[in-house]
Design brief:
Length: 334
């Protein structure tokens, strides 16, 4: 048994790693739709200079049994590293996960990181789940927990109209909403990036401390280019202030390999523009565009810290229901 860094240009091993990843994520989650190999390999082969990644695999008799993806931000939060570790269910409890964990801890230390964070999905009613026990044995402590919710589609037009009518008097006349497919125009990108960079600071994150991110228009366009190669679709609704600047946004992402699933990425309203029901407004508008353009999609998946009462209340009003938990664990590195 050993661990090696994955050569992402080796189609055979990369396909095996993808199979281990999707098999691991599917355990106990009948609703899970795996990403296609084609879109996954585009992501794995992309070299993001602002957040390089290393993919380490465990092997047995020439077969990939598990993998760990290590992310190392270089432009912000440079004391942190993130890892996402998976072992194929047919190869668990044989030391592969521990070998991979030891490897990413070693690599995070080599990169002079002082904290390593990992997240995973567990059932709501299993506080002693095996994934929790595994990371705790490896020195991790629970930092915060996101509640993962699903929204069944389509949401009735009457419900969206009711929520729109309740929020519109609070913002109409001072703001306008616009929706874009696969990225906002370049003129809006600087103010959008400024808003996006604040999300990680304002969202509840428990014991994990973050500084603002450093998304730039150039890096934003780079990400859009990768998404196009992955055949993903991104729907972005923005709230624009009096000067035409972005003051709030909401992103929905439609993966090509998961044909009925939509992922709710960031939703954020700048702190200076809160109290006007803009959060509800941009989410309703984005859902309307989603349902008009993509009636084949059956669910939206989102996650929020349980203490984020503002966003939780919006999601519950839209009809999101609790499905699972995503705890974040942190290990302090010597």
């Amino acid at each position: 048994m050993g661990t090696v860094q994955l050569d992402v240009n080796d189609d055979r091993l990369t396909r095996q790693a993808h199979q281990a990843l999707t098999a691991s994520r599917a355990v106990g989650r009948p609703w899970y739709e795996p990403p296609s190999f084609e879109e996954t390999v585009v992501d794995w082969r992309h070299e993001d200079q602002a957040e390089p990644k290393e993919i380490w695999v465990a092997e047995h008799d020439g077969e990939v049994t598990g993998l760990a993806m290590l992310y190392l931000p270089m432009e912000d939060n440079t004391w942190l590293a993130w890892c996402d570790l998976h072992v194929h269910p047919e190869h668990r409890r044989r030391g592969h996960g521990s070998a991979l964990m030891d490897r990413v801890v070693e690599r995070a230390k080599d990169a002079r990181r002082t904290s390593l964070v990992t997240e995973f999905m567990v059932p709501v009613d299993e506080p002693e789940h095996g994934y929790r026990r595994f990371v705790e044995r490896h020195g991790y402590t629970l930092s915060n927990t996101e509640v993962v919710r699903h929204l069944d589609l389509p949401v009735p037009d009457s419900q969206l109209q009711h929520l729109d009518s309740a929020s519109r008097p609070r913002w109409a006349g001072d703001y306008r909403l616009e929706t874009y497919v696969n990225g906002v125009p370049e003129a809006l990108q600087p103010s959008l990036c400024e808003v996006m960079n604040q999300l990680i600071v304002d969202a509840p994150t428990g014991e994990i401390e973050y500084e603002p991110e450093s998304m730039s228009p150039g890096r934003y366009r780079e990400h859009l280019g990768v998404e196009r190669q992955m055949a993903r679709t991104r729907l972005t609704t923005v709230a624009l202030g009096a000067a035409g600047e972005v003051v709030g946004y909401s992103d929905l992402v439609l993966p090509a390999g998961a044909p009925t699933t939509v992922f709710q990425w960031g939703t954020y309203v700048h702190r200076e523009h809160r109290g006007r029901r803009l959060g509800m407004a941009i989410k309703v508008e984005n859902l309307r565009r989603l349902q008009a353009d993509h009636p084949e999609r059956r669910r939206v998946v989102t996650g929020n810290d349980g203490t984020n009462s503002w966003m939780v209340s919006i999601n519950e009003a839209l009809g999101f229901h609790v499905v699972e938990l995503s705890p974040a664990y942190q290990r302090k590195l010597d």
